[in-house]
């Protein structure tokens, strides 16, 4: 009897309208997620017969994207097969690419939800699954989700298991100050006002145990800063959470950071301050930090200390200069985008590109950042950082001297990422 031929696995996204089901296929598994009001999800590993329960850990509800005019596609060298190893050729026009598949599938999935629920959840970048279950079980949470996103998010995440099993505690007779106390914050109107300033895009579960400590230190400088800011974003929180930066920051700098929309999503200023502090400790050990009054002054300070840092011979026998790097999360393309695998390679990249990337070694060891050398279409240095949805995104992409890469280079790198990252 002839063996049944196994169909090739085609990674991608689609929406099954008959079952109102989001379908995601990657190199290892198939995931099926049903929308409102069922809210159930399963997965099956390729080659296995049994489906397993799944709790999606990526952003399910996304703002409806406006479709931009198509850009001309940058021609990429034709690889022998995709990163997934399925022998697919992305250069063939056999249908929409992964990015467009994703947009279409997630837009259709979103439309299964009531408009007010989708609008309340779409700006949260993590843990949307328990948030949706909480709103289905306790519709009264919708008002809190609108007026105090951080309070809603923290409550739903604290009671994750209860939300998933229809056992959320009742909120009858509970005001927002009492809810804050239930979550370990001071049970006061002042706490509610501060939490109400936090942008929904900036609420991430991982840091809130530390953020809670900022609120509990009534006389701390961090809490005073938060009280005087009109809005609080991820950038502000990360700066205040890093105690090494206390001597560098000022109220005027924090006000600038709080006003930047991009700092809701990525704490770039905190990372730049961390770079300055790290290099300063090497160049000027024992000297106190300089207070920085503005983002412009931060850039100038970064350039100054970078020049001094690069002038120091880091070729030392000290093991601290030669940490072991973890394996990069994404394979490169030889001759185009290549991972940097050691501290020695990182220092060489800094010398070649006249930048301070060698100061990123600690971040690489901690898996917060990975560095790649980009050789085409122009020589540049790329950092990739974790995306809240569980993948990887561009952190920085710069040519020599910390100058921005050209749009064609950005597009080329984005195409590389899109072909190698599925949720």
Overview of this structure, please?
The protein is an alpha+beta fold. Helix content is 38%, strand content 11%. The chain is built from 17 helices and ten strands.
Structure at a glance:
The protein has 423 residues and is α+β, with helices and mostly antiparallel strands. The protein has helices at residues 98-110, 115-121, 128-137, 141-147, 149-158, 160-164, 176-182, 189-196, 208-216, 221-228, 234-241, 251-258, 268-283, 295-310, 343-353, 361-365, 407-420; strands at residues 12-16, 21-25, 29-34, 41-45, 52-53, 337-339, 370-374, 380-386, 392-399, 403-404.
Q: Label the overall shape.
A: flat
- The termini sit apart by 39 Å
Helix content: 25-40%
* Mean pLDDT metric: 86
Radius of gyration: 24 Å
Low-confidence stretches: 77-93
The ordered string of helix (H) and strand (E) elements is EEEEEHHHHHHHHHHHHHHEHHEEEEH
- Strand arrangement, major sheet: 1-2-3-4-5
Major sheet: size, sense and barrel closure? 5 strands, antiparallel
| Number of strand elements | 10
- DSSP helix count? 17
User: What portion of residues belong to β-strands?
Assistant: 5-15%
- SS content category: alpha+beta
Topology:
Layout: E1 12-16, E2 21-25, E3 29-34, E4 41-45, E5 52-53, H1 98-110, H2 115-121, H3 128-137, H4 141-147, H5 149-158, H6 160-164, H7 176-182, H8 189-196, H9 208-216, H10 221-228, H11 234-241, H12 251-258, H13 268-283, H14 295-310, E6 337-339, H15 343-353, H16 361-365, E7 370-374, E8 380-386, E9 392-399, E10 403-404, H17 407-420
Antiparallel strand pairs: 1-2, 2-3, 3-4, 4-5, 6-7, 7-8, 8-9, 9-10
Helix pairs in contact: 4-5, 11-13, 13-14
